[in-house]
Structure formats: C-alpha cells, structure tokens
C-alpha cells in the first residue's frame, strides 16, 4: 500500500457488506458489472444508483482503493467479490446470531420479546441436552411444564441452582426426571453465591441474562438478556459448567430432589 494505514480492497468490500442493505448491494452489483474499471464516472454512477443513501465516504473509498490496488480488474470482478463477501457475511450472521431480550418497560431501541417466551422457546428447541442455571426460582409453572416435556422426549436436563434461595422447590414436580446440582457451602469462599442465570439447549442455543427463574423476573422486572445461536460460544459456556459438575471432585455436586 502506498499510504500508511490505507485500507486493502478486501477490507473495503467487507466494510461495504456490513453497511449496505441487501437491496443496495444488488443495485451496486448491477452498476459495478457494467463498469470496465474504476472509470472517472464510476463514483457518480454508484451514488446515483440509490440517491440519499449516505454512502458517499464508502463510495469514494471503494473507487480510490480499486484504482490504487487493482485498476486492471473489470467491474464484474468487483461485483462478484462484493457478492461473495455478502454471502460469507450472511452465513456468519446465521451461525453467530445474537438477539437482545428484555422484560419490563419496552423502548423503541429493542423489539419487544419477553424473557419468559424466549426461555420457553429455548427449552422447547432442545433435542439432547438442557443446562439450566439460576440463583432463584419461584412459581414459573410454564417453565416447569416445558422442562417436563423436554425430559419426556428424552432430553437430559441438568438444573444448577443456588440452595440458599430454596430454588429447587420450584421444580419438585420434576423429581427423578431431571438432575439437580448445587454448590456446597464447604466448597465456597466466604459468602460466594451461585449467581449465574442461563438456559442452554444442545450446546448451541442459549438464553443468557439477568433474570432469575421467577414469575416476577420473567414478566415484570426490568431485565436484559441475550439469545445466542453460536455453537462455539455456547459450547464454551456449557463446557465450563460441565467441567464443574464432577461428582466427588466438584465444585458442583448432585443432590437428591424432594418436593
């Protein structure tokens, strides 16, 4: 590169893919395919393909980088590279999808999707395993029933709960159908507590947030969480807990459930 810090053509195309909505990308692809190269009118033709797009800086960056690095390439090659980058970007988004979930008052910033409905959705999607971790649990009949249905269809259900809150009482109806884990006082330091809250299905789909498994937290409190569809990230979280669930070695230990 002739200029320190100048962007490469692949990085410019990757940036464009993130900025351009799908409709814009198609229109830009059509314009680029008709260009013989980074001609003097190339920038204007791209800008006029969708007026008022607010992409003047990106357009200038594309043309100047194209002209500097690969002026011999026809526009059809740039269009194909843009389309390929877009396909890769959409595939990555599908594999690493993250959504915000809220409870309580809504706002224009986040589409409303209540934590309770998401929690039920994660449990219902499980086909082989479920890991449920919560500091407190109370009520949540719909959650308990959905966990029961998961157990009935052969899903291995592990509940990791804070015993100081009597969280296990909420799941008394699931006795002998799920496994319950706790963090014994003798294995803790000081006043440490099991404070994590998550529901993970099959190590690739997880709800992670601030809400306990209580009726108030899932429907009324101001709570914020994330839904992750990311096999790598979710598996790391699940593997972390699995590594703590080693009977006899701990620190988490299985306990017998009683209604």
Give your account of this protein's structure:
The structure is a single chain. By secondary structure, this protein is of the alpha/beta class. It has two domains: about 10-95, no CATH class; about 95-255, 2-Layer Sandwich (Endonuclease, Chain A), CATH 3.30.870. It is about 40% helix and about 20% strand. The protein is built from nine helices and ten strands. It has helices at about 10-20, 20-35, 40-50, 55-70, 75-95, 115-125, 140-150, 215-220, 230-245, and strands at about 95-105, 130-135, 135-140, 155-160, 180, 200, 205-210, 215, 225-230, 255. The strands form two sheets. Strands 1-9-7-6-2-4-5-10 form an eight-stranded mixed β-sheet, sandwiched between helices. Strand 6 (about 200) and strand 7 form a beta hairpin. The termini are far apart.
Measure the end-to-end span.
70 Å
Low-pLDDT segments: 1-5
Round the Cα radius of gyration to an integer and report it.
26 Å
Proportion of helical residues: 40-55%
Report on the biggest sheet.
8 strands, mixed
Total beta strands? 10
Strand order of the largest sheet: 1-9-7-6-2-4-5-10
Order of helices and strands: HHHHHEHEEHEEEEEHEHE
Number of domains: 2
What average pLDDT do the residues reach?
87
Query: What coarse outline follows from CA principal-axis ratios?
Result: elongated
Q: Do you know the CATH topology of the largest domain?
A: Endonuclease, Chain A
Please, how many helices?
9
- CATH C-level class of the largest domain is Alpha Beta
Query: Judging by the overall fold, what is the CATH architecture of the largest domain?
Result: 2-Layer Sandwich
* CATH homology-level superfamily of the largest domain: Endonuclease Chain A
Q: Which oligomeric state applies?
A: single chain
Helix-strand makeup class: alpha/beta
């Amino acid at each position: 590169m002739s200029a320190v810090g100048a962007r490469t053509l692949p990085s410019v195309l990757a940036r464009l893919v993130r900025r351009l909505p799908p409709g814009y990308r198609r229109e830009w692809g059509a314009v680029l395919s008709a260009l013989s190269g980074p001609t003097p009118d190339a920038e204007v033709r791209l800008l006029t393909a969708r007026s008022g797009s607010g992409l003047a800086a990106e357009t200038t960056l594309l043309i100047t980088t194209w002209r500097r690095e690969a002026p011999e390439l026809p526009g059809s090659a740039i269009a194909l590279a843009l389309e390929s980058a877009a396909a890769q970007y959409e595939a990555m988004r599908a594999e690493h999808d993250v959504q915000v979930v809220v409870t309580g008052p809504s706002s224009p910033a986040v589409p409303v999707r209540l934590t309770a409905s998401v929690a039920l959705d994660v449990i219902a999607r499980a086909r082989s395993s479920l890991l449920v971790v919560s500091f407190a649990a109370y009520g949540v009949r719909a959650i308990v029933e959905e966990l029961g249905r998961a157990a009935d269809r052969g899903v291995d259900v592990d509940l990791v709960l804070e015993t100081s809150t009597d969280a296990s009482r909420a799941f008394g109806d699931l006795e002998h159908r799920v496994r319950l884990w706790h963090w014994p006082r003798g294995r803790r330091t000081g006043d440490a507590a099991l404070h994590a809250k998550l529901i993970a299905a099959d190590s690739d789909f997880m709800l992670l947030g601030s809400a306990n498994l209580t009726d108030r937290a899932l429907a009324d409190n101001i709570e914020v969480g994330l839904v992750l569809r990311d096999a790598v990230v979710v598996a790391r979280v699940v593997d972390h807990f699995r590594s703590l669930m080693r009977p006899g070695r701990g620190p988490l230990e299985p306990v017998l459930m009683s209604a």
